[in-house]
Amino acid sequence: MRETEFAIVGAGPAGLSAAIEAARAGVQVTLIDENEKPGGQLFKQIHKFFGSKEHYAGVRGIDIGYQLLDEVEKCGAEVMLNSVVWGIFENLDLGIIQNGKRNLHLQPKKVLLATGAVENALAFPGWTLAGVMGAGAIQTLVNVHRVLPGKRILMVGSGNVGLIVSYQLLQAGAEVVALVEAAPRIGGYAVHASKVARRGVPILVSTTVKEALGKETVEQAVLVSLDENWKPIPGSERTLDVDVICLACGLSPLAELAWMAGVDFTYIPQFGGWMPLHNENMETTRSGLYIAGDLAGIEEASTAIEEGRLAGVAAAESLGYLSPAAAEEQKTVIRKRLNQLREGPFGEARKEIKEQLAFGGGKWRY
Amino acid sequence: MALLKNGYLSQDELQKLPGVPTPERLAKGPVVVIECAQEIPCNPCETACAKGAIHIGENIIELPVLEEEKCSGCALCVAACPGQAIFVVDATYSETEGTVTLPYEYLPLPQKGDLVDGLNRAGEAVCTARVLRVVNPEKYDHTAVITIAVPKALIMEVRSLRRKQSEV
Questions:
Q1: N or C: which end of chain A has fewer CB within 10 A?
Q2: Which residues in chain B have their CB less than 8 angstroms from residue A347's CB?
Q3: Over the stretch A219-265, which tens digit does the pLDDT of each residue have?
Q4: Taking a C-beta distance cutoff of 8 angstroms, is the pair B88, B48 a contact?
Q5: B51 touches chain A (CB under 8 A)
Q6: In terms of CATH, what superfamily is A2-118+251-359?
């Protein structure tokens, strides 16, 4: 059995950042990802990020990805690609399949799960037709492989993902025929909405897709208006000619390994549903097992980076590479940046919940 | 709020923002219009401004406040805004025309001298606009900053452009 001090599962923004912090402190780090390239979703994010300078504001996600990869390389963390972690066991030991063939048994002292999220689906008649796709798949096709999945797109969902992917589809030359949102108001940042609105994309709130029509692929979408109780209004149906229906209906923490590890979970709608309980060091109810990024509640890539750093510093401290005082100093700076990202109407609720999780009276009450 | 229903600011909503210049300042020449209406954690506009004309402060969710007398309309903040919510308008360009300077990330870029459709916040073509300047240095990181001439009455309306269909 191979050994390592700190195994990180998932080389997205959270995993990369944790690897950098821990390796810089001197920890032996093994960063594992099932994909052939590290970076997670960052390399699909061709738009400029928000925040302040310390949060890489104004830098495109793809370039943040390159920066983090560069730092990982310099700090000497081992990066294990094409490697699927299929199990986590009694002593935090990991079962890994490499390149679809070789089985590897890895014994780390500490583990960070930074497995990210999975997209929520939306079921409606016709949803299995070719052309009904998740926003993540469309982002991969358009931004990574430079292939347009269609020419006339219906976007479903007005969170930041739906708004940003609509903009990127416009940039790639597609027509976004409409963007529908079941809620009575736009969910994501208004500035993202304004970018697509000024290109003539109609944003229709209190509206959803009722049905997709077509023989083998999507040819039409039937829209329906919703009343204040989210019930379809009879007679409000109208049909649009589209060849792609893009679903951007939110994300849920990708938690299989965390479930398998037997940690305690909690259900928090604002964070995308079931997620592992964790304290202010990103440690779960199982000692030595940390989480960060979307697995610790759906947020932005910028918050994932900070949570990853926090977990990396905490792991380094618990392995004896950082004194409690030195670790606390670093954690204070990181937590300040995290809190900045959770200010304002979009982040406040998340900030409060995270604080309750970490400090809420009883150790694990929520 | 119209912004949260159809995705763009109404003139009423616009006038209430602390980043929008007064009519008196508009009449004096180039100045930024910061169409940022939500408290989101973001401050690159403040960092980009060499004149100290944009104030957000320590708490980065605060809306940007324009100190209009300090703004020279240099447009450094236009490409820096990740939300593409900052424009520069010049009401003094000529007797009949004003200019709008806007962020633009669609290829191919229009060229100086091109006639394009001027689009309002809802994406409707409201005029023919003339491209005066296309600035796209490495520093702007692929956000071109384009200045167009539009009928003077439309400088607070036009917020994007589209190359004429026949040219596409």
A1: N
A2: 41, 61
A3: 999 999 999 999 999 999 999 999 999 999 999 999 999 999 999 99
A4: no
A5: no
A6: FAD/NAD(P)-binding domain (3.50.50.60)
